[in-house]
């Protein structure tokens, strides 16, 4: 697995009272990376070097 941007201990804090499946962090990590990649492409399309919330 590549470097994860999701912190599993923080994920467990957020979903307190629920069990966390072993594959949840990996799936969330993949989704977050996809969102960020698309945001970078949008910023580039708008001739910006700054990725902003509106790029999501």
Task: Give a structural overview.
- There is one protein chain.
- By secondary structure, the chain is mostly helical.
- The chain has one domain.
- It is built from two helices and no strands.
- The protein has helices at 8-14, 24-45.
- The protein is elongated.
- The two termini are 24 Å apart.
- 0% of the residues are buried.
What are the main properties of this structure?
single chain, 56 residues, mainly alpha, 2 helices
Per-chain topology:
Elements: H1 8-14, H2 24-45
Poorly predicted runs: none
The helical percent reads 40-55%
Find the count of extended strands (DSSP E, 2+ residues). 0
Count the domains.
Answer: 1
Q: Estimate the strand proportion.
A: under 5%
* Largest sheet entry: none
Which secondary-structure class do the elements indicate? mainly alpha
Q: Judging from the principal axes of the Cα atoms, what is the shape? A: elongated
C-alpha-based Rg, rounded:
14 Å
Question: Alpha-carbon distance between the termini?
Answer: 24 Å
**Mean of the pLDDT scores?**
94
Helix and strand sequence = HH
Helix count equals 2
């Amino acid at each position: 697995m590549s470097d994860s941007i999701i912190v599993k201990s923080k994920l467990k804090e957020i979903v307190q009272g629920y069990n966390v499946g072993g594959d949840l962090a990996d799936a969330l990590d993949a989704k977050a990376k996809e969102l960020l990649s698309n945001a970078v492409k949008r910023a580039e399309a708008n001739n910006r070097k700054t990725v902003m919330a509106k790029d999501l």
